[in-house]
Queue: 4 jobs
Job 1
Amino acid sequence: MQSRKFVADMVKQATGQSYPAVSDKIVKLAQIPLPPLHEQNRIAAILDNADDLRRLRGRAVDRLGELGQAIFCEMFGDPRNNPKGLTKRALGSIIKVSSGEGLTSKNQRHGTYPVYGGNGINGYHDEFRVPEGTIVIGRVGVYCGAVHVTAAPAWVTDNALIVTKKDASIDTTYLADALRYANLNQYASRSAQPLVSGSRIYPVEILVPEAAEQNKFKSRICERNALVENERAHLEQLEALFSSLQSRAFRGEL
């Protein structure tokens, strides 16, 4: 029923000016190719195997995405009990935050620059306000406290906070993961609309290891990121393969 021929037949028989539709009777009378049962089972097995590969690759991407926190904990320990006795500093001595600039989806002009809201990219625009590598923190709503790093020059909306480092010796990659580990959402106001602000997070302390250790952490995260990109590329290939197999199956070409 997802084949192009079936859809085209239904479109031809649709009636109605403002909202074309087909009746239940037309759908019930429509004919579709029905191969023998053994052939149906063969096709189903091929599609199931392709779908299994797709889901396994998706899980691998998810697991690699979680690896950053594991690397952080392995190298520096849990910040809550600081087993390695690392220096701790309040965020207010390391960063300052400012609200992004309002930009509704209606006013986005579909350019090439990503628009970051409270939980990452929510659209694209033809202007940018911050450079690549800017740390962004969700400011308002259920995702307040979520941490992202812009992968390109970007626009940050007023649903997020822009992080500016006051201490250039703190590596951005390390700082972003330290902020994620700090779980900033727990410091949000608990009103009808959860809110994170500078005054709420500046007192929060994070671990500040030596620069050499921060750089070592950055190298490991870069390796992780390369693996993630590789897995995502394979996942996209599997998605395309699965879609192609579905189309060929419905055309009777599988």
Job 2
Amino acid sequence: MSLIALMPAVSFGLLTDLRGFRAEIKANLREFGQDAKEEIEAAIGGGNGSMNALRVEIKADNRKLASRMDSLDGRVDKLGADLNDRMDSLAAELSDRIEQIYQLLLPAKPEP
């Protein structure tokens, strides 16, 4: 199997893996946030004013985490696009070189 044929599969595989990791991280962060919230509520055991402040703080932290994940999404997409562009460039360069070699290997035609 040629390198050119493998490039799209490798690129797609990497993007799929990165998206899978991203989804896993988001799920872990949600679970961590929920666990932290429950632990805080249990530890305080009341105090509505304090609890409300903590809820606001947790919501703000969750928004920050979501923003960071969105930023990561953008970076992953850019890396994928850059990888695809580079692979296209390399494939074109390889094709040109193969054509040059082919032209060199053609038997010389005598001039009339």
Job 3
Amino acid sequence: MSELIYGFNVVTAAVESGYSLLNVRVTADNLDMIKLLKEKRIPFSLVSKEELNRLVPLCQGIMAEIAEFRTYSLNQVAEPKGSPEAKRSLLIVLDGLEDPHNLGAILRTAEASGSGGIIYPKNRSVKLNSTVAKVSTGSIFNVKCVEVVNIVATLKKLKDLGYWVVGADAFGKVDYNRMKYDFPTVLVIGSEGKGISRLVLEECDLVVRIPMVGKINSLNASVSAGILIYQIKKDQWE
């Protein structure tokens, strides 16, 4: 089953990442996109704005299909133990994340920060889809995503490779900014409603919290991820 993608940045990123586009539909006034499609010799159909908006509202005058979103193996994102790249490696594990908008936002932050990849479970988790692609503004095509059967087993493998597993939890014992993340890091972000599951929490070498002074006692998953990702990458590059 093919996957729908839409929006100028999303389709452009797909083309630049070497994806084959199918059933490309574009409006006549989308000159930059038409130029790109012609340069890449990608067949397309011209359609009216009204027709395209009936199919996908707010699609910026371009929509297409791809066979599927690429996924990678764990070995393709984890750096070898002791390698020069390992110290600056950050992998992000999503434990039961369900909101595609959160996944899209985390992908966008992961790409901007130079993170090594996103890992998520095959079951009970949001999948890569058109909404995720749109929210990520095309980052979905530039960040390596790994779908695994068992998060706990995956964390054990990463720990064997020298990674430290850092969980983000409102009840963590350490403020995130009191740590120095100068080591290969796996950042675990829990689900929107339940946080990190017990078995996954048991695999964490460290559980950190983001201190808050307002009346709201929690942050959106993608906001928490963004704060922690940039703190970790800052320390890794110092």
Job 4
Amino acid sequence: MRQLCSLNALQVFEAAARHLSFQKAAAELDVTSTAVSHQIKLLETELGMSLFRRRPRPLALTAAGKQLFPAVQESLDTLAVAIAHLRQFNTPTDLTVSVLNVFAAKWLVPRLPDFQQQYPEVDVRLQTSNSAVDLQARTVDVAIRYGKGHYSELEVHCLMKDTFTPVCSPRLLVDEQPLAAPEDLARYALIHFEWLNYGSDAPSWKNWLALVGLDDVDPDR
């Protein structure tokens, strides 16, 4: 079992040793100089040794005080950090997330119970939208969007990467004139998706046709 001195006395000692002044320690701790002197005396009595040399002035640490001071200061700092972290975790935090409609329904919402179990102090609020969001306006904390991720003024993390490939009805593969090769696309109307948050390099028929070398197929048909 650890045999420790009074935490209050150690805190008073740390302040007095740091300032080398009972009066300044009293002002910092919002107590009287007499209270500081009393706590120091209790600590010295418990340890059986003097920690301060009071005469001649100014106040100075004894050899024992010099040995004890850094250990007490480090311990109190460590304790203060740990308590601050605990208080932070126990403080309810609102997290507003702007997310694409389909992504919210298919990916994010099913995973929220696990997140909330791990972080019960976080109150997650979802805003579903397919439009771009202005994070500088501070109406939302996090936005999940499709994009290239090149946003210089924001902190960006890639959640996953998509693979885009042309698809068609199975019926078109067995027609009298089946869709058997990419160049056969010239005979069909192409279905397009309008990207809201991409630039000119958004996944599109134009980019895919150029990639496979079919410059003679109209991507806008």
